[in-house]
Specification:
about 240 residues; alpha+beta; L-fuculose-1-phosphate Aldolase; seven-stranded antiparallel beta sheet; globular
């Protein structure tokens, strides 16, 4: 993928967060990785979305070394890079402070799989990380945030769990492309809102049975998937 195309895709992913009401002012960010070159494009730090242009996207390598761009990259770049290095299947990462998902993160509660809408995208609950220590926050905070996410996902398929809640912070989502990462940010917020309303109606609500969860997840994902049209890209 040419850098112009990568920047354009990542800009669109960032703007999708705004269109869907997940990012206020300069909150949040999205990035994308070109697998062929290993280069990553990410939103610049503190730049309002309405002013963003493709050329503003900062391009770095997987170690964070600047390749192209005149602006400072998002302060969350080390978190994104930690995820890309740990999970080769990822081609995009998004981070927001969306209201319902952040409420779960602040409560340090996972989002349970209470229904089939959730199971269409997450093969189980949306996990929550541990709270970072004072030393982790004081030194290499953003990189340690990425490490906490990787630690929480140990042994899991990151494409079967396309997002996580960072305790006390907010959601990070990902996917095979930047577009998919933004899509999953939108979905995660919807799932969080539905879960909040369900738990308000019934605080003792239980997750759906595994057989129903598996049916909904695997009819959309994996080799036996039959949802949608053949050859259609699925987020």
């Amino acid at each position: 993928m040419k850098l112009e195309s990568l920047r354009a895709e990542v800009l669109e992913a960032n703007l999708e967060l705004v269109r869907r009401g997940l990012a206020l002012y300069t909150f949040g960010n999205a990035s994308g990785r070109d697998r062929a070159s290993g280069l990553v494009a990410i939103k610049p730090s503190g730049v309002p979305y309405e002013r963003l242009r493709p050329a503003d996207l900062v391009v770095v390598d997987l170690e964070g070394r600047l390749v192209e761009g005149a602006l400072r990259p998002s302060s969350d770049l080390p978190t994104h890079l930690a995820l890309y290095r740990a999970f080769p299947a990822l081609g995009g990462v998004a981070h927001t402070h969306s209201r319902a998902a952040t409420a779960f993160a602040q409560a340090r509660r996972e989002i349970p799989c209470l229904g089939t809408t959730h199971a269409d995208y997450f093969h189980g609950p949306v996990p929550v990380t541990r709270l970072l220590t004072a030393d982790e926050v004081a030194r290499d905070y953003e990189a340690r945030t990425g490490q906490a996410i990787v630690e929480r996902l140990a042994g899991a398929d990151p494409l079967g769990t396309p997002g996580v809640l960072v305790a006390g912070h907010g959601p990070f989502t990902w996917g095979p492309t930047a577009r998919a990462a933004a899509h999953h940010a939108v979905i995660l917020e919807e799932l969080a809102e539905i879960a909040l309303r369900t738990l308000a109606l019934d605080p003792a609500a239980l997750p759906i049975p595994a057989y129903l969860r598996d049916k909904h997840f695997f009819r959309k994902h994996g080799p036996g998937a039959y949802y949608g049209q053949p050859g259609e890209e699925k987020p």
